[in-house]
């Protein structure tokens, strides 16, 4: 069989390359359909009962995140006739834009006064009556429900609340934002600030598409640089690069065919593929050159031996690396799950191309001119020999240093904080984040806050005295202790009606003290119960209600702490027992990711460790090999956890996936060392001799691939997303530490744990 392949290898090569060319052309054709997508709701944890409750909640009332906050600043003050007239014109213009359900602006705000003639609506701002602006201003800033909602605390800006069509598509929301931006720009205000889910998705997608190209170019240049340093030949650069590029194109085409768009996670895939896929290629090329240098009879013989020696170890690393990504399938978050699936498929495609197409290409190319290098003049051999000698002479120092670093790192791990923000990962310089901070400083914030109120006694009604007072007490707690503003609830409607019945006096924005008076106010509201704004707060039967508001993007850690305090408040107050309070909303669903982060991270890492241990034991038929395979690669994970704890890098969706991925990739070096060690031991040599041969022959490829991996992941630090920045930085550090621990601990562990088969 081998003779047949040898005789027909050229024909087989051309046929296979033709087949690859066809698939590549089809893949490029399919890439015309590639899309970028960022849907906040895709980060909601799946299979969570609270997600079902949230879906029911918004079906009962309305979407809590389909709105746009637009702040307009006038630095000389807002009560200027020319400024207010422009606000009025802009209000009318925005109201008529498609997909705008309604607009609330300072010009449209009114308060009601109930008199003998019936309800009268009086504007808070009497537009055009400049002599009344001082009186209007005084009334507005005596009305707490307006300040921080529609009027800035410093009196220099006003805010629009623009409700959009529910379930609005990405294309329509982009069009809506563009139209609003054009209309606002036409008025040339001092400054404007916008915050909305629609703008967040637009900004994220623009960054994703830009960084997709940025990461690819950066990783490409870094990989080319390392390949040139390693092989110093043109073919040593373009052959590996072409193979990895093909695997990237095929993987992206597969994503497109299956309808998967590039999101904030999968946009990293080309970079991941470029650096991870290059590992296989480097090991083959390094071994191929080594065989030619040692006098292989032909290119065919050199390739066959390179594949035999490097192939098995690389296949094992394929399993461990793919496993690092596949453990993400356990995640309850769809983008992370998809990232794990498609990246593992991409790694498999890269392996197949490396061990099928690359040998064919190398065979068809002219035999490279490789000068024989004397061992004593070989840079890599000299440096590796020097390092091995130093390690063996300083065994105790290496062990003690390792234990000290591990101990400190374990303490650091206990300091890791779980946290998540609505504006996930954007840097302080980003315009969207600056807009959010403006609303937090001058208004109530942007983060939607939602509570579902239900009854303990299902025969009762939320319109009753006891239940209404409980909701009012809850509203006060939320405003004063939880940090919620812009609050609207059934209780606020009743207080507003009481104010109307008292000639619009701001001090009457309270529930009447007497039960009969409260019932009278509620009866007065009866005529408004068919209005949409009423239906969006309480169901027709009075069995369910909604408390809605806005707050600062305080992060999931602080929010959940405040939620725990809210629960204590409810338990400590007997008069709150008549209602059930259930936190819900889109922002809370994003926060709940943290509930699964630790479990998924630990579970994924344990699976990776278990599989690597089992593979090592089965392949080498020696349980001690498990220890050798695990320790040098578990230590970097412990160290990176310690770094996160001491530097305050928070655990969130993007950083949580580092551990299992980094462990899967880091084990590659150890597996290559062990594979070569097995070949050497099979020849009956002493353990010390086998360690030395394995270390010197495999060390260069291990160091080069580790540098390529580190360099590739470091390209991610140029990201505008903090989460991506930390992902690239931390994985790079992990892999760098991994190669150091391999070089230092591998020889010592083998000498201590492997029984010598030959003495002397």
What does this structure look like?
With 760 residues, the protein is of the alpha+beta class. Among the domains are: 173 residues, Up-down Bundle (Multidrug efflux transporter AcrB transmembrane fold), CATH 1.20.1640; 202 residues, Up-down Bundle (Multidrug efflux transporter AcrB transmembrane fold), CATH 1.20.1640.10. Helix content is 63%, strand content 9%. The protein is built from 26 helices and ten strands. The strands form three sheets. A four-stranded antiparallel beta sheet has the order 2-5-1-6, sandwiched between helices. Strands 8-9-7-10 form a four-stranded antiparallel beta sheet, sandwiched between helices. Strands 3-4 form a two-stranded antiparallel sheet. Helix 9 runs antiparallel to helix 10 and helix 12 crosses helix 25. The mean pLDDT is 84.
The overall pLDDT, averaged over residues, is 84
CATH level-4 homologous superfamily of the domain at 377-414 and 597-760 = Multidrug efflux transporter AcrB transmembrane domain
**Share of residues in helices:** 55-70%
Query: What Rg do the Cα atoms give?
Result: 33 Å
Instruction: Specify the structural class.
Output: alpha+beta
Strand order of the largest sheet: 2-5-1-6
Low-confidence stretches: none
CATH class assignment of the domain at 377-414 and 597-760: Mainly Alpha
Assign an overall shape.
elongated
CATH fold type of the domain at 377-414 and 597-760: Multidrug efflux transporter AcrB transmembrane fold
């Amino acid at each position: 069989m081998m003779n047949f392949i040898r005789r027909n290898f050229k024909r087989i090569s051309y046929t296979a390359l033709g087949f690859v060319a066809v698939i590549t052309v089809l893949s490029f054709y399919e890439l015309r359909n590639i899309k970028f997508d960022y849907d906040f709701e895709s980060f909601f944890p799946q299979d969570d009962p609270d997600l079902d409750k949230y879906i029911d909640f918004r079906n009962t009332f309305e979407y809590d995140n389909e709105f746009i906050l637009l702040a307009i600043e006038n630095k000389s003050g807002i009560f200027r006739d020319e400024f207010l007239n422009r606000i009025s014109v802009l209000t009318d213009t925005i109201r008529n834009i498609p997909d705008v359900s309604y607009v609330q602006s300072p010009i449209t705000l009114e308060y009601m006064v109930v008199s003998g003639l019936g309800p009268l609506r009086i504007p808070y701002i009497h537009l055009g009556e400049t002599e009344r602006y001082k009186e209007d201003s005084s009334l507005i800033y005596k009305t707490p429900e307006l300040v921080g909602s529609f009027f800035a605390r410093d009196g220099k800006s006003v805010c629009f609340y623009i409700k959009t069509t529910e379930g609005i598509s990405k294309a329509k929301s982009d069009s809506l934002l563009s139209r609003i931006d054009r209309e606002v720009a036409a008025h040339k205000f001092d400054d404007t600030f916008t915050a909305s889910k629609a703008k967040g998705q637009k900004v994220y997608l623009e960054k994703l598409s830009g960084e997709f190209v940025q990461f690819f170019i950066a990783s490409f240049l870094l990989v080319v640089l390392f390949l040139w340093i390693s092989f110093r030949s043109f073919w040593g650069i373009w052959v590996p690069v072409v193979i990895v590029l093909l695997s990237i194109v095929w993987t992206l085409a597969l994503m497109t065919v299956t309808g998967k768009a590039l999101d904030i996670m999968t946009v990293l895939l080309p970079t991941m593929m470029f650096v991870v896929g290059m590992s296989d290629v480097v090991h083959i090329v390094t071994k191929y050159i080594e065989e030619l240098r040692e006098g292989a009879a032909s290119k065919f013989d050199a390739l066959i031996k390179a594949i035999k020696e490097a192939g098995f170890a690389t296949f094992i690393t394929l399993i461990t690396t793919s496993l690092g990504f596949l453990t993400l399938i356990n995640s309850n978050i769809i983008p992370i799950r998809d990232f794990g699936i498609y990246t593992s498929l991409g790694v498999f495609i890269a392996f197949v191309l490396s061990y099928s197409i690359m040998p064919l290409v190398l065979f068809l190319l002219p035999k490279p001119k490789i000068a024989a290098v004397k061992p004593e003049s070989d840079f890599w051999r000299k440096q590796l020999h020097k390092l091995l000698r130093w390690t063996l002479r300083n065994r105790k120092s290496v062990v003690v240093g390792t234990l000290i670093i591990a101990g400190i790192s374990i303490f650091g791990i206990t300091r890791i904080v779980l946290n998540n923000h609505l504006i996930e990962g954007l840097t302080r310089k980003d315009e969207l984040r600056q807009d959010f901070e403006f609303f937090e400083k001058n208004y109530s914030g942007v983060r939607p806050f939602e509570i579902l109120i239900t009854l303990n006694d299902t025969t009762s009604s939320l319109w009753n005295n006891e239940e209404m007072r409980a909701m009012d007490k809850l509203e006060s707690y939320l405003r004063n202790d939880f940090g919620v503003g812009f609050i609207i609830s059934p209780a606020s409607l009743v207080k507003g009606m009481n104010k109307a019945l008292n000639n619009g006096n701001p001090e009457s924005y309270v529930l009447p003290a007497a039960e009969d008076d409260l019932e009278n106010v509620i009866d007065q509201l009866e005529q408004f119960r068919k209005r949409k704004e009423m239906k969006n707060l309480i169901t027709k039967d009075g069995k369910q209600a909604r408390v809605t508001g806005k707050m600062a993007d305080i992060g999931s850690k602080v929010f959940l702490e405040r939620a725990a305090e809210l629960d204590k408040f409810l338990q400590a107050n007997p008069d709150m027992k008549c209602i059930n309070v259930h936190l819900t909303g889109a922002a809370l669903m994003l926060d709940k990711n943290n509930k699964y982060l630790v479990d998924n991270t630990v579970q994924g890492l344990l699976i990776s460790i278990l599989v690597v241990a089992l593979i090592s034991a089965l392949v080498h038929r020696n349980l001690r090999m498990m220890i050798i395979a695990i320790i040098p690669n578990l230590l970097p994970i412990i160290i990176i956890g310690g770094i996160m704890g001491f530097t305050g890098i928070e655990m969130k969706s993007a950083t949580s996936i580092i551990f299992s991925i980094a462990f899967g990739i880091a084990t590659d070096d150890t597996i290559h060392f062990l594979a070569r060690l097995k070949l050497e031991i099979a020849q009956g040599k002493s353990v010390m001799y086998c360690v030395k041969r394995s270390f010197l022959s495999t060390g260069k490829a291990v160091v080069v691939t580790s540098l390529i991996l580190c360099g590739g992941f470091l390209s991610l630090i140029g990201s505008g997303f903090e989460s991506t920045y930390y992902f690239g930085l931390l994985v790079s550090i992990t892999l760098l530490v991994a190669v150091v621990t391999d070089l230092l601990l591998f020889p010592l562990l083998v000498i201590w744990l492997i029984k010598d088969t030959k003495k002397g």
